[in-house]
Structures are given as structure tokens and as C-alpha cells.
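Proteins fold. Shown next:

***
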Amino acid sequence: MIDYLTRHLTRRVTTGLVAAAVALPLMGLAGMVTSAKAATLEEIKKRGYLIVATEDDFRPFEFVKDGKPTGFDNDLVAELRKFAPFEIRQEILPWTGILAGVSTGKYDVAITAAIITKERTKSLSFTSPIADATHFYVKRKKDTSITSIKDLSGKTVGVQSGSALLGRLPELAAMLEKQGGKLGKVVEYTSYPEAYQDLALGRTDYVVNTIINLKALVGEKPDVFEIGQAVSGKSYPAWAIAKDNTSLQAFLNEFIAKQKASGKFYELQKTWFGEAFTDLPVSFDPEF
């Protein structure tokens, strides 16, 4: 199980985790930056703006429709503009550049559904969780060869590069091994829409993503895809900031708490997720 990634992994792009680890040295060598430092809340107030990074295509959390950013997190960014005593400058970019940019101080916060993991907490801090992120698999609806987790043995799985879902595939590998099976080839994608397209075309057998994202997918294409079973334990997404930036973390947690108290937070969850998660923990210490 431990070496399954080296045996099965097909790399399409450099992973976000690797990018985060090498971003600063590479940028220094290229002469692109001389230094990077995360700004504290006081420094943000002094300069007059907060730099927010959001993802370009991660439905229903963030995506672009008719040229405008939309989704759960983008609706919260709109509320944050009303709450913050400074300007909110938003940059929309692919997932693979977001966490690296936060860890090096290029962006102050990643307002995206970044799943809290033990590895990520080494270089990042997180706000209060914003939703449930238990991992499920999705398959082609007409694929009768997959009816349960044991049927995933040896089959090709698609997952986003640099994602926490990739890092927690050993959980699925362990489930399969207990049933006498094994994890098949893993194909990484820059974005989930690419992964879903390949799944629909039969290039992969299933895709692993959070239950919220998969509900949104099946809601849009019920004749093409079907959700399977959970392939991970509990996990939660949150907004990411630089490690130990406690003042900014407290400010953002205050904003989230006030959105919950007003009911706006749960209203947006129902709009975008189809349900409200009223029992989310205030903080989360990941096992994986």
C-alpha cells in the first residue's frame, strides 16, 4: 500500500504539494522575487487591501459563469467586502498555484475549499471548516461493472493533482486490500472538469472527489454520472493562510462566525450544496 503511488501514478502536471515545496527556491533562482513574507492583519490594514486567491473551476465552491466569479466561496467574498475595513483584491487562478502562493506570501488567503490535512498544516494554517468534505467515488451511470468499493480493484482512478484527495488514496487502497483487491492506476488532472470528461469518455473508470462536488456534478449530468460510496473518513475544507498568521486567522474566523450567527452562511450552503452543515467544528486537527 505504501508504495502504490510510485507503482501506479501517472503524472500530467506537477502537483500542488511539490509546487508549494519548491516555489520559493525556484522563484529566487529565476529572479522573480527577492523575498516573500505573509502580511499580518495589522500590515494588511496599513496597506489598505487583502489579496484573496480563489479557484477558477471548482464547482460549487468557485467557478466562473458568464465572465463573473460565482459559487459558495465567491458569495462569501462578496460578504467579506462588506465586513472588512479594507479593500479585497481577488485573483482567480488554477488550483495548482493557489496554496504555493499563500505559503510564500504572494496571496494573503486562499478562499477556496482547501481540505485540511496533516501535511498541509506544516506550512499553512486554516480557518474554521466551511463544509463537509468526505470523499466518495463517482462512476459512469451505465457502468455495471462497479456496484461497490470492491469493484474498484485494479481500475483506473482520476483525481486532481496536488489535492488532499490524492494524498488520502491510501485509505481507499487499504479498503481494497482488506477485500483482496488493489488500487489501480492513478491519473492526475489539473482540474476536475478534465477528470470528469475523461471519465465520461471511458478513459478512466472512476473519479474521487468530495461529496459536495460530486452532488453538484450528478445534479448537472444525472444521465451520465452516478455517485458511489465513501472512500475516506471525515474531512473538512477551510480557507488557507500562511502558517501561524494568527491575527489574520482570527479576523477570518470572526467573519465566518458572524456569517453563521446571521444565518447567511447556512443560507449559502443550502443554495450551493443543497443542505446546511450546522454541526461543523470550529477547528479541526487532521489525522491524515
The domain at 4-15+133-230 is CATH 3.40.190.10 (D-Maltodextrin-Binding Protein; domain 2). The radius of gyration is 19 Å. Residues 1-35 have pLDDT under 50 and may be disordered.
